[in-house]
Amino acid sequence: MTAVQLSLLDGERRRDRGLALVSQGDECQEWLRKARDWAERMLSYRFISYVTANDVRGMAGDPPRQNLMGAVFKDKRFEFCGWELSSRGPAHARALRRWRLKDG
Description:
The protein is an alpha+beta fold. The protein has one domain (3-101): Arc Repressor Mutant, subunit A. It contains 3 helices and 2 strands, in the order H-H-H-E-E. It has helices spanning 3-22, 26-44, 53-60; strands spanning 78-85, 95-101. A two-stranded antiparallel sheet has the order 1-2. Helix 2 (26-44) crosses helix 3 (53-60). The radius of gyration is 15 Å and the shape is globular. It starts with a helix and ends with a strand. The mean pLDDT is 85.
């Protein structure tokens, strides 16, 4: 492996460890469950074809910790399906991932 590959793997491990740490605690676990369930429900009923972090924040409310938002779609039910720009003022038109339910 090259140094770039090792750096990428190390970065992914650190990201995953950070998401696991920020997700700990009853309040965080409850919010994550609510956010994921809302997204799954909306997508499974076909009300919408994809969701973003903005959609989740609008329905589930602000997370107890801001960096918890990154953990919402780290779940086997969802897959990445594109990008859009955030319309939320504090996000400064940052690119957001779009997520849909995995087939099957």
